[in-house]
Amino acid sequence: MIQEMLYGTLRWYIQLEYILNQLIEKRIKKKDRLLKYLIIIGLYQLMYMRIPSHAVVSETVETCVKINMGWAKGLINAILRRYLRETKNLNSKISKNELIKLAHPKWLIEKIKGDWPNDWNNILIANNERPPMFLRVNQLQNNREEYLIKLKKVGITGKKTNYSSDGILLEEPTNIEKLPGFAQGDISIQDLAAQLAVELLDLKPNHNVLDACAAPGGKSAHILESEPKIKTLTAIEKDKIRAEKLHGTLDRLKLHANIKVENIVNIAAWWNGKKFDRILFDAPCSATGVIRRHPDIKLLRTMDEITTINKLQMKLLVTLWSTLKNNGLLVYATCS
Asked: Which of 107, 176, 210, 242 is the most buried (most CB within 10 A)?
């Protein structure tokens, strides 16, 4: 329930903040932002969760005491009860305001409209949905049919994906502890689109392969699972903490790569001069394609950051291109 409240509040924050501003005469001061967030969480529960309204109001009021804001009990009670009285009118206002109804920043709505003029509305609606849970079966240890049977035995329903030959879509998301063989490397958690990147590499035995920006290691592992007879896999990650996650992923799956904790642009520090047959460049990006899984992106990302990221992508791409064989293949992947 805590996870639902957290992700749901982030998902609908723009809309919830708008509603709060309709219910108060004076904006809550910055120094009292915890109070603002508490009220917004309460509004989310009233709007989107199946919790009795009296319980939401009561628990939210009591919580303000726990965060040393007992002085605001009356205010919280009044705001939430006013929302319950004025729900119909507020919903009418929301329906007439595109930005608030879709709960996306204006700059992002405009960019998506420009790039997807026929589908922008469906994209934004999809961004506000709860994400599905996909698995990728480790073909070195079992196949999809075998793993679907394992799932069925523990009461989990899943089905094969159409686009990934290794993918399974779960009927309902579940904790990884409940997934049979997860700790032993039978499967990985990976979104469907991410599973498609490695198939595009067209891997062959004896290929020298580079995975750039490799952490947390899902695609590196998929490379090694898809073609166990490649000659080498070099995986680059500049962040030491994320590199540890890369190590952890490969260790769990009983796989090995030549991991380099370096910045790609410092090419002399990680490249021995031997060109690669295949490069997977999972470029740093705006991550606007994974908003439903990371709804905070709507609140944190800015247009200025997009411009900066684009320049970085080009710099990295030029560097990597110089390490690719003339007849090689580079897959440029982003989650935006």
From this structure: 210
